[in-house]
């Protein structure tokens, strides 16, 4: 019987960009703008602290515009994380995760009507491990194509 490939082997390689809770939100906004990211892992000195999504940024921005006369781009990322909704969190998974497991993990929240989460692949799936790859619902077509039998 064939074993499904590992998710890390079928997805494009690339450096995972992260932000720290104390970073100014302007730093995160620059990454969103220049690199097109919709999700940024947040890591503090103890490891994984959450994921900053463009949805949370939009809710924070709406709050900023009603409270202030402008955007406080120096406000720390940790303040923007408060605008995340339940389900806007990434799941840490080990590097050995297969394509099938990754698809299942990404799809399960969607079937339950929840916001899609991201997967952060690390060496052992621990919050203290360095992130190797962020896998978002955007990656589902690549993961699914890897299962096609020629």
Summarize the structure.
The protein is α+β, with helices and mostly antiparallel strands.
Describe this structure in words.
The strands form two sheets. Strands 3-4-5 form a three-stranded mixed beta sheet, covered by helices on one side. A two-stranded antiparallel ribbon has the order 1-2. It is elongated and about 60 Å long. The longest helix is centred in the middle third of the chain and has 14 residues. It is 35% helix and 17% strand. The relative contact order is 0.21.
**Biggest β-sheet: strands ordered side by side in the sheet:** 3-4-5
Radius of gyration: 16 Å
Distance between the termini: 15 Å
Low-confidence stretches: none
Number of H/I helices: 6
The average pLDDT score comes to 87
- The total count of strands amounts to 5
Structural class by sheet pairing and helices: alpha+beta
Order of helices and strands: HHEEHHEHEEH
How would you sum up the global shape? elongated
Beta strand %: 15-25%
The level of helicity is 25-40%
Largest sheet: 3 strands, mixed
């Amino acid at each position: 019987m064939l074993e499904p490939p590992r998710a890390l082997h079928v997805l494009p390689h690339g450096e995972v960009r992260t932000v720290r809770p104390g970073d100014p939100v302007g730093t995160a906004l620059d990454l969103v703008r220049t690199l097109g990211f919709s999700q940024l892992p947040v890591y503090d000195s103890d490891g994984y602290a959450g994921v900053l999504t463009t949805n949370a940024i939009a809710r924070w921005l709406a709050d900023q515009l009603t409270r202030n006369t402008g955007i406080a781009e120096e406000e720390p990322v940790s303040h923007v994380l408060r605008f995340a909704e339940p389900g806007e969190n990434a799941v840490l998974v080990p590097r050995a995760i297969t394509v099938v497991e990754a698809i299942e993990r990404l799809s399960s929240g969607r079937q339950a009507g929840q916001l899609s989460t991201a997967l952060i692949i690390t060496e052992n799936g621990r919050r203290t491990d360095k992130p190797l790859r962020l896998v978002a619902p955007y990656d589902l077509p690549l993961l699914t194509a890897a299962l096609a039998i020629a």
